[in-house]
Amino acid sequence: MPPKGRQPSSPDSPFLFVNEDASTVNRTTKDAQVxxxxxxxxxxxxxxxxxxxxxxxxxxxxxxNLSPPATSPATPIVSQDAPPSSTSVFLQGHGYFDxxxxxxxxxxxxxxxxxxxxxxxxxxxxxxxxxxxxxxSPMSSVAPLRGFDALQIHQATPSFESLRxxxxxxxxxxxxxxxxxxxxxxxxxxxxxxxxDQRILEQWAPHLIRHYNTVVLPEKxxxxxxxxxxxxxxxxxxxxxxxxxxxxxxxxxxxYLASAATHMIVREGRLLLPGASDNDARHVSxxxxxxxxxxxxxxxxxxxxxxxxxxxxxxxxxSTILFENVEAAEPHFHxxxxxxxxxxxxxxxxxxxxxxxxxxxxEAAMRYxxxxxxxxxxxxxxxxxxxxxxxxxxxxxxxxxxxxxxEICRSENIYLSESDTFADxxxxxxxxxxxxxxxxxxxxxxxxxxxxxxxxxxxxxxSLFFQETDDTSCALKxxxxxxxxxxxxxxxxxxxxxxxxxxxxxxxRLEATNLDRSWRPHTEVLLWIATFAGICAxxxxxxxxxxxxNLAKExxxxxxxxxxxxxEDLFSRFLYDPLSQRSYMVNFSRRMWGSQGF
Length: 598
Fold this sequence. Notes:
- Helices cover about 55% and strands about 0% of the residues.
- It is mostly helical and about 600 residues long.
- It comes from Exophiala mesophila.
């Protein structure tokens, strides 16, 4: 009898197994692709059935729990009624996600460490009041972790600037949206049986969402949350709407979880998830990113695009940047640029979305010592006459901020190339202190403060990496970037580690000068530089931290300063924000003088 001919592969249709029940998945075939497709289909169908069952039970609870807090005259809530705009978009070639087409989700599956008995629905805390309680410190339970993934060349567009190879890339191959180059994804096949998507969501999604909303977001928007809780801040309505979208769309949910997992690992050094092992760090994020990409491919394949889909791509981009996966980040970045342009530019995004884009752009520039890539069309500009009148009373009571710094820098011509940058920094400190002193939470002024911080940081970074300056001015610019980074977040690890790559640059510039001769007229300025560079170094490099500690101690002795009180008194005439930086100053003073400095 002649051998049976090999059956042709089944067509790749999303409706291939619509009429087959779950029992057919147990029958394995010789076609591995068919087996995987069947399994994925049944998992999707099961997920959809459970979601439909929940809809009737949870609709009322969702509407009550996810609605914005009750408004009051003192705390108006930002409206979230305006839906995001949408448009049809044709992406180049076969689409942005072609480079993931042959990547099997099963390769990214995690080993199941959860108990055998789990509830059949997502944890109800996913749908609860996400801002009901505020966490002032990291979550205090569950297991360890660490590890991760590298950027490439960007062609300038009207919405973005590219002044050099982005983020220090060394002549890489261009990755286009047509998929000409496919980045290699570092993924291992787990030896243990894979966990189901549902179980991963049940077990880990609530923890990731809670950590992101109660730890990461308050730190990202610390200039707001130092004044009010997350539930009362100006972005609360947008964040609630974002969470509602995540509960309704798998693409949004998986992109959100990928970003949340990455932030947890980077901030905590491990995954604070029940049952997560040290080996799960890479695979948790890869799993969620892969699922998000699959869902986004299906969504974009219909020709539909809105701002939330663009933010999903941005979350994938930020996740790869956080893990220094430069090669994998670039396709996401090109897709994001295309989407922003199709949607009408950054000005069409809401405040929460735009400030999220700005934060990641600046953090990446600091991390990779490069020019920021987002065009600054969102800078609110210097204080208006009305705002100047608001802070005039405080200036009369406390004197001119940074008067000593201004006098030294301008007389010796050692400061920034833009003549107005120093005046802008002074305005920034005055407005920041004013907003903390007033009783009310002034949303419009808080928006100005956040945008202005970012615009000045963008300006100095662009000047630092694009314009040639002498070693003295360069050291001062870098120290100013570090000062801005540490003054816009209470948690040093949140911003300090982003600026940590700048610390060796400060040291290199200072060592290139003659410390005794070049800085003799500017001893107090050198002390300011050494102190803030040392504060940042303490979060990342013990060797550099010790070098700056020794330099600061020697310089302080030359200036006649030997305790914390004298140091703070000196810095009060420089750029110093006690509200956000005093705890750093206390720790650094203890490194210099021990208990004798208090």
